[in-house]
Structure formats: structure tokens, C-alpha cells
Design goal:
mainly beta; 9% helix; 903 residues
Length: 903
């Protein structure tokens, strides 16, 4: 019903856009005052010398509409309304307003984007034309080593314009099945002779009840001759966030007497996640244009995202209780899932586990780029680009506490969120839990690339061929993930015995209780809403205060890996159509060879070069392979009239697998006895695409467009669940799947894991359409609306990650001489994320209402107000079917208020 209402509203706004065209052509809102248009070539926006300059929201939209109209490919554009005034708090949030793009706010803020029904790792992100290194702050993503760009590391204040290429073009970097996003930073020679801007905001986060500072500044200068320009920008942002969650961490089929009951929840918990986010960064551009023939740009970007976080999860541990010989009684089974029942452990087993994980984490990236264009003649151009980019995503230290107890619990999954009642254990009493485990792991993830590009272009005027261009590229990419771990016998046992001034106990680490409003708005009457917390400072001080020899870490071999990837490529492309003609386009081919070297460690017997340590015996493996892709493409644009444009596009695209997919490694989750594994021989994603777009431009401020797309994907990369035996150090083994290692004195067990192995699955198709409209209406009011339908399926029946069948954006805005306001609504239907803990992980539909208000109190002083997630939408996740609950998260609302200055 909600979706139907939104579709009707979208259709109504499209109708408004069509019916109001005559009004706009008559100049009804031409005088709406707004800010200066973004940097870049403004000639296409200039008419007669006495024309009123349109800026602000409407000017930004006009710039984007004009850029789309002039493009030879199927594309969309976002531009900043002014320096430091991008339409959302980060670039991912802004990109979700474009048709075909969706995001996920799992931690309250968009981090990655999905384009046209594909997963985030199939969208290629470029910075000024080349990929920027990326790494992650969250430990699971650090271990996953994905290629998808994390926009949290890119301060939005440095962005001037973002181009979204939806059809392939030979001179655009390969790597995007969904499409390619090119983020442009600003150049000083495109701005006024001297520009100084700054902003200061307070950020209020509702769940954490925290008010934090945000600040940015930019200074740009160029000389009178416009031959030299210098730009420097800096940003600082801080936010303390909190996320309340109720989770089911996987399902399993029990052995023994309970084997026929159905899938049972492995772990049911209430989780409190807290994080201190601190983002700071700077960018600089030095630009030389000594003549009309030569231009040199030197750019640098640095960004640091501090992400220290503390996650506490009090859980009912069904997998361990039943695996250790416990019982399941009073079971209610629905659709193959045990949704109600009582689980009782043996006296020495575990029915309760409490994990508190303190992570000192960050992600940062930096890049340096030399870009020069030389025009030896009026009809030729030579382009050279050299650069280096590096990123790190580290969990420098991870103090970890785990307590547990035998007992029993009743559970009920039939409500909105699970209900759990513990028997024999009081969650608010730390003395009811034994101190079972502690660790102090460290995870580092480094990503770096050096690159060189050389392009030439020559105007030829050979019939329909306007110019010819060709280019070469070389990239050398390294990704290294390292997991250094403390051991059970060397670290935990000394800690347990004497690390707390004597034997360590759970009460020693205990602090207060969960917040009084924990999981408010989500909890059912029987949901766990209160448990004792671990004192974060006591945990840190105790574990970090141990002697150096006890704190010593050793490599955890199966999760240490590296990959080197060298790409050699080139393209030739012909630009078609005459200047000022009724049609234009391009046709070309891109060829790229990839040399891949993967290094990892697999379980094996001791021998030359092997690794033998407390985690077992492992054999290093090196795998080399190469493959070549030939990627033809063609794009045609027809000006059917002064108002109508038709575009056609077709091509071949590819996207390399995530780094973690193509290395011999295994990432273990001992709590659920599940794992993820890579395969160096996994082939890239490859697809053939076709695009059609019909666009109506009744005036410079209006667009109504319909785009259709089709992607024939040869082979998806999917998870295949197999089983394997891996060593685990634990004092609480699942005895149905773990056996002691003979002769071990470190509580080492060989355990049977369900392993998600990455492999090439069947092919499939992504097809759909996009409708969009944007126009001023009357009296300073205007609207933007778009709707995307995406149908993705695979021949093997595997679900397609990232595909939401329906997505919708509705934005209304108002501008006057002193006021600018925007209200933006976004909807995304349910989608499949991935296989997690050997079960599907899906997310339900999401919606959000965001707002911004700007008040000009003086010519150069603006008061600002922004609100994110006014509807207080919750995130709901499930395992394949909505009746099989996985998680519900509440990130709350965010509010920003402050002042922006411009000189």
C-alpha cells in the first residue's frame, strides 16, 4: 500500500512537470535568486550578456540538466549548489537521489552505493578520472577486503560535481558492471579570483544524545592573468553515535534428538553499539595554465576517519547448548524454522554468552596526482596522468571480553523482534557469568596503487568521424590483510589466573547497566532490554596492562593474505557527428590484461616453508594467473528536436572480484562454526549491456526522461556452502562438531565449519527502467522525482546481491531572496545482501525523510539546518524469508545546525 501511494505520488509529480512546461518557458521563475553555479565550463549556461544568473538549488539543477543533455552517454550529474554546500552530508547520501542508485544506512549513514540492481562492488568509483584506494573501518569489512568504495572517507566539502556513467564508453576506466561514478574536485582557475568559505555546525545525534562539532574551510586564489591558481580545503567532523539492535546470528540444523525439528537460531542477542566518529581531511590543488596550449594540475587529498567502537551483545547460545548435548523442548515449527521453544544446556555447557568488543579502528586514504594536457595544435591534444593512491583500514587493538554460563532459555521469534527469557541466569548480575575468554587481536588492511595514463586525441573531420583518440594505461595494485592474534594459552590463561590482581572474574569487568531507553520502539514485552555492561576503561586497562610477553600477538595464518594485480590496457575511440549537428556519439574498444598474484595460507601438514604455531599447521600458497578482456562500446545521441533527445548505448563491461574472493584464505567465525573462503581462480564478472534513454527538455530548468537498461551477466560470483575442518582454541567447544587435537595443551580443537566458498555461478540478467522529472513549479517552489524498477535474476536461482525491485525519490524545494529549503523522501524495497553465517541475509524495505533549510541573514552569511531520517526508520533484516528474523537496528535521527560564511 505504501509503495502504491508513492508510485501514484511520483506519477502525479511527473504530470505536474509536464503540465507546467509552458509556465517555465514564459519565464515564470527565472528571477529566483540562488548561489553561483559549480565550477566547470559555464558557457552552456550563458545566454545574452544581460541574462539573469540563476544559482542556488535551481542553478545547481540547471547545471546538472545541461550536463546531462550535452553528454554523449547515458548519464546523470549532481553538482554542489555552492562551495561547501553539497545537497547531503556525504556523497553517497547525495548519490541516492539519482535514479537507479540506492544506499544502505546500516550504521545510520550511507557508505556505499549500488547502481541499477547490482551489488556495491560492481559500481566503479573514480576521483578525477581514476580509482582512489579504499579501505574500511569495520572489522568484518576489513577482513572482506572489498573493492567497493567507502564514501565515509571522502569529505563531501571537496566535491564540486559527480558524474554517473550508466552506459560504457571506451575512454572510461573499466570495472563497473552497474556503472561508473566519477567524482570531480574543484579547480581554482574555474573559480573567482579569490574565494574564502567556511562553515561551523553542531551535530546532534538523537540515540546517543550527543552534540558534536563540524567545521570546514576552503580558500582559493588565482592571479589576474589566470595562469596560476591555488586551492586548499580542510574539514573536521565529529559524531558520537549509538545503535540499538536485536539480532539472530545465524540458524543451524541440530544433531541428535532435535535433528528433525528444523532450523534453530544459533544465537539470539540484544546488542548495544557505540562509536566515536571523527573525520578530518584536506585537499589541495595547484593549477598552471601558462598558455592556451598547456595546463598542469597537481592535486592531493588526505582523509582520516576515526571509528573507535564498542559493541556489547548479551546472547542466548542455542548452537553451543545443543551442540554440547543439551535439549530442545516445547518446539513450535513454522516453515522449517523453530520459532518457539526451550533450550537447556548440560551443566558444563553454555546457554548464555556475553561478548563485549572494544575496537580502536580507523580508515584513511590519500592520493597524489599529476595531470597535464598539452595542445600542440588547435586540433590535437596530449594528456598525461601519473599518480599514487593509498588507503589503510585498521583495527589497531581489539580488547575482547566473553562471559558465559550454563542454564536454559525460552525463546519466541513470532513477534516483531525476538523474545528471550533466561532460566537460572540473571542478565543484570555479572556474578552469574564465568569469565570464559579474552583476546587482544589486531587487524590491518592496506590498499595502494600507482598508475600512469597517456592519451592522444586528433580532430580529423573524416565524414561522420569528428575525432580519433587513443590511450594506454598501467596500474600496479597491492592489497594486504594481516590478522595478528593473541593465543588462548599464552594470553588468556595468564590473564585469567592473575591479570586482575588475582583470578579474573566477570564482576571485575562489570560497569553499569544498559541505557534506560535501550531498544525502545522495537522491543516486545519479553525482549531482553537490560543487562549489565562491561566497563570499557577497565577492559582496556586490564588487557593492555599485561606484560609485553603476554600481550604478544602471532599471525593467524588462514586470515593473512596478499594480492598484487597489474593491469595493462588501452583503447581507441572515434567521436562521431559534426559540430552543431543533429546527432553525435562515439564508438570504440577497450582492451585490458590483468596479471594476478594471490598469496595466502591453507591448512596443511608441516614441511618446508610451512607455518606451525598455536593455531595449527599451515602451508603458504602462491597462485598466479592472467586474463584479458576486450570491451567494445558504442553510444549514439540524436537530437530529435530542440526539446527531445534520444540516446542509445551498448557495450561490454567487466568487474574484477573482491580481493578477498581471489586469495587462498579462510575467515573463521568460531561462535557459529561458519567461515568464508576465497578461490584464486574465480573469474571476473562480465556482462553485455544495452541502454535506451528518451529525454524531454521543454526549457533549461526542466527534464522529463525515461531510460531502459538491460545487462546480460555471464557469471555471478556466489557463495557455495561446503564443510571443512579447522583448528579452534576454546574452552567451550561445540562437542557435536569439535574434537580435541591430540597432544595439545592450549585447548586446541578440530572443528567442523560450514564454509561459504566464493565461486562462479550461473549467469543472469538485470533489466529495468528509470523515470525522472525535475522542474520549478511556481513562486519559488520546485520538484524532483524519480522511480526505478529493477528486475535481476540468475539462471542458477541464486539471489542477486544489492537488487531492490523498487526505489523512489521525491524532493520538493523552495527558494526566495533569503530562504532555501528542501524536503527529500527516499524509498528502497527489500533486497538480498549476501550469505552470512551459512544462511541468507536479506534486508527489508527502508524509507527516510530528510530536510534542509538555509537562511541568508546577510549577503555572505547563511544559517543552516539539516535533519536526517526524520521518520526514524528502522533496519529490518531476515534470512531468506521474512518469518526467519535476523536483525532489527535503530540508528535514530540526526540534526545539524550552524552557519556558513563566504567571502
Amino acid at each position: 500500500m505504501v509503495l502504491r501511494t508513492m508510485m501514484v505520488a511520483s506519477a502525479s509529480l511527473l504530470a505536474i512537470g509536464v503540465s507546467g512546461a509552458a509556465y517555465a518557458q514564459a519565464g515564470g521563475t527565472e528571477g529566483s535568486p540562488t548561489d553561483q553555479a559549480p565550477s566547470g565550463d559555464q558557457s552552456s549556461l550563458s545566454g545574452a550578456d544581460d541574462e539573469i544568473v540563476v544559482t542556488g538549488i535551481r542553478g545547481s539543477l540547471r547545471q546538472a540538466i545541461e550536463a546531462k543533455r550535452q553528454s554523449d552517454v547515458v548519464s546523470d550529474v549532481i553538482t554542489a549548489e555552492d562551495i561547501g554546500k553539497f545537497p547531503d552530508k556525504n556523497a553517497a547520501e547525495a548519490l541516492q537521489r539519482i535514479p537507479g542508485i540506492v544506499i544502505n544506512r546500516e550504521f545510520g549513514e550511507g557508505e556505499r552505493v549500488s547502481l541499477r540492481g547490482t551489488a556495491p562492488n560492481l559500481t566503479r568509483t573514480l576521483l578525477n578520472g581514476h580509482a582512489v584506494a579504499t579501505a574500511d573501518w569495520f572489522i568484518l569489512e576489513q577482513l572482506a577486503a572489498t573493492r567497493s568504495f567507502n564514501y565515509l572517507t571522502l569529505p563531501v566539502d571537496v566535491v564540486g560535481q559527480i558524474d554517473v556513467y550508466k552506459s560504457p564508453q571506451a575512454n572510461v576506466e573499466e570495472g563497473g558492471i552497474g556503472g561508473t561514478i566519477n567524482v570531480h574536485t574543484r579547480n581554482p582557475l574555474d573559480l573567482q579570483p579569490f574565494v574564502l568559505t567556511g562553515s561551523l555546525q553542531g551535530a546532534y545525534t538523537e540515540k546517543s544524545d550527543s552534540l558534536d562539532p563540524q567545521a570546514s574551510a576552503l580558500i582559493s586564489w588565482k592571479n589576474d592573468a589566470e595562469t596560476v591558481g591555488l586551492l586548499f580545503g580542510a574539514v573536521y567532523q565529529k559524531r558520537d553515535i549509538r545503535r540499538d539492535g536485536v539480532e539472530v546470528l545465524g540458524y543451524f540444523t541440530p544433531a541428535g534428538a532435535a535433528a528433525g525439528a528444523g532450523q534453530v537460531p544459533s544465537l539470539i542477542g540484544s546488542a548495544l553499539f557505540q562509536q566515536e566518529r571523527e573525520r578530518y581531511g584536506a585537499n589541495t590543488t595547484l593549477q598552471f595554465r601558462p598558455s592556451d596550449r598547456l595546463e598542469i594540475n597537481l592535486t592531493g587529498l588526505y582523509s582520516h576517519f576515526g571509528a573507535n567502537n564498542f559493541n556489547q551483545n548479551y546472547l542466548a547460545w542455542g548452537a553451543n547448548a545443543l551442540g554440547g548435548g543439551g535439549t530442545l523442548t516445547n518446539a513450535t515449527v513454522e516453515d522449517g524454522t523453530v520459532v518457539k521453544g526451550r533450550i537447556t544446556s548440560t551443566p558444563g555447557g553454555r546457554a548464555v554468552v556475553y561478548d563485549a568488543i572494544d575496537r580502536e579502528a580507523f580508515a584513511e586514504n590519500w592520493s597524489a596526482d599529476f595531470d597535464t594536457v598539452y595542445r600542440p595544435t588547435d586540433t590535437s591534444k596530449i594528456h598525461l596522468k601519473l599518480g599514487y593512491t593509498k588507503a589503510s583500514g585498521d583495527t589497531k587493538s581489539q580488547p575482547f571480553y566473553e562471559g558465559g554460563a550454563p542454564g536454559a532459555f525460552d525463546f519466541d521469534l513470532t513477534g516483531r523482534v525476538p523474545q528471550v527469557s533466561f532460566i537460572g541466569v540473571d542478565p543484570t548480575d555479572p556474578s552469574d557469568l564465568a569469565f570464559d575468554f579474552a583476546s587482544l587481536h589486531k587487524i590491518t588492511n592496506d590498499d595502494k596503487e600507482k598508475y600512469a595514463y597517456f592519451d592522444v586525441e586528433q580532430e580529423v573531420g573524416w565524414g561522420p568521424i569528428r575525432s580519433l583518440s587513443a590511450g594506454l594505461k598501467y596500474t600496479d595494485h597491492d592489497r594486504v590483510t594481516r590478522f595478528d592474534a593473541t593465543t588462548f594459552g599464552g594470553f588468556f590463561l595468564p590473564l585469567l589466573a592473575s591479570g586482575c590482581g588475582g583470578p579474573c572474574t566477570s564482576p571485575f569487568f562489570a560497569g553499569g547497566a544498559t541505557p534506560n531507553d535501550f531498544v525502545d520502539g522495537m522491543a516486545e514485552p519479553g525482549t531482553l532490554t537490560r543487562f549489565f555492561q562491561i566497563d570499557r576503561e577497565v577492559l582496556r586497562r586490564t588487557l593492555l596492562g599485561l606484560p609485553a610477553e603476554v600481550r604478544a600477538r602471532i599471525p593467524n595464518p588462514p586470515e593473512n593474505y596478499a594480492i598484487n594485480e597489474k593491469a595493462y590496457g588501452g583503447y581507441v575511440m572515434a567521436t562521431l557527428g559534426r559540430e552543431g549537428g543533429k546527432w553525435s556519439g562515439n564508438v570504440g574498444v577497450r582492451v585490458v590484461r590483468t596479471d594476478q598474484t594471490s598469496r595466502g595460507n591453507i591448512v596443511g601438514t608441516a614441511g618446508p616453508g610451512s607455518i606451525s604455531n598455536a593455531f595449527g599447521d599451515f602451508r603458504p600458497v602462491v597462485v598466479e594467473r592472467s586474463y584479458t578482456d576486450v570491451l567494445p562500446s558504442a553510444n549514439l545521441k540524436f537530437d530529435l528536436s530542440e526539446q527531445f533527445v534520444l540516446r542509445l548505448g551498448a557495450g561490454r563491461t567487466m568487474a574484477r572480484p573482491d580481493f578477498t574472493d581471489i586469495v587462498p584464505r579462510v575467515s573463521l567465525n568460531p561462535g557459529t562454526l561458519t567461515a568464508d573462503s576465497g578461490d584464486p581462480f574465480v573469474d571476473p564478472f562480465r556482462a553485455t549491456t544495452a541502454d535506451v534513454s528518451l529525454e524531454w527538455y521543454p526549457d533549461r530548468d526542466t527534464i522529463v526522461a525515461l531510460a531502459l537498461y538491460y545487462k546480460d551477466i555471464e557469471s555471478y560470483i556466489v557463495n557455495r556452502t561446503t564443510q571443512g575442518i579447522f583448528p579452534v582454541q576454546t574452552a567451550t567447544p561445540n562437542l557435536s562438531r569439535c574434537t580435541p587435537v591430540s597432544g595439545s595443551t592450549d585447548n586446541l580443537f578440530n572443528c567442523l565449519f560450514d564454509v561459504n566458498r566464493r565461486s562462479n555461478g550461473g549467469g543472469g540478467t538485470n533489466k529495468g527502467f528509470e523515470i525522472q522529472a525535475s522542474r520549478p513549479i511556481f513562486g519559488g517552489f520546485g520538484i524532483q522525482a524519480n522511480y526505478t524498477y529493477s528486475d535481476a535474476s540468475s539462471s542458477g536461482g541464486d539471489p542477486i546481491p544489492g537488487n531492490s525491485k523498487h526505489s523512489l525519490n521525491l524532493t520538493g524545494y523552495y527558494e526566495s531572496d533569503w530562504l532555501s529549503a528542501r524536503l527529500a523522501y527516499n524509498y528502497r524495497s527489500s533486497f538480498f545482501i549476501n550469505i552470512d553465517r551459512a544462511t541468507p541475509l536479506n534486508q527489508g524495505s527502508t524509507e527516510s525523510l530528510d530536510a534542509s533549510v538555509n537562511i541568508d541573514v546577510l549577503d555572505n552569511v547563511t544559517l543552516t539546518f539539516d535533519a536526517v531520517n526524520l521518520t526514524n526508520d528502522k533496519i529490518f533484516q531476515y534470512a531468506g524469508t521474512e518469518s526467519r528474523f535476523r536483525a532489527m537496528y535503530d540508528n535514530g535521527r540526526q540534526f545539524y545546525f550552524g552557519v556558513r560564511l563566504r567571502y
